[in-house]
Amino acid sequence: MRTARLFLRPVAAEDLPAVERLWRDERVRMYPGGPVADEKITVRSQRLPGTPGAFAVTGQDTGTVAGMVTTDPRSSRGATEVSNTLPPEHWGRSGGIGKPWPPPSSGSWRPHLPTPSL
After folding, report:
1. pLDDT digits over 81-97, tens only?
2. What pLDDT does 118 receive?
């Protein structure tokens, strides 16, 4: 998925340093239970690259990883949940990187979502 400034692509092994920074950041992880423990990061890092529904948010011009978007078609709320994880330097800025993404209800995410297995 692309916007004028950003590109969403599957997470690759070379994205892991940026993703691990998000998992370790106390401010980023304030509500989901705090920073992720090192032993869990090791396991997550082995499983994340290529996982359906996990995307790196990169700059169109630079290709630099600025955050991550994950989708969960089996959300406890009964609908696909789309979550973004962004570092603090991208929070609250007018025109920040989270702003250009369409809402999940728009249907534009559908081709990028994993199919839930039963």
Report:
1. 888 888 888 776 545 55
2. 38
**Model confidence at 31: pLDDT above 90:** no
Chain mean pLDDT for the chain: 80
Q: Which residues contact 81 (CB under 8 A, 6 or more apart)?
A: 71, 72, 75, 104
Strand duo 81-85 + 6-10: pairing:
unpaired
Residue type for position 96: G
Residue 21 tokens, joined: 């920074």
Degrees, nearest 5: CA angle 72-37-32: 40
Rounded to whole angstroms, the Cα distance separating 5 from 61 reads 7
**DSSP code at position 68:** E
Q: State how far the Cα of 116 lies from the Cα of 114, in Å rounded to an integer.
A: 6
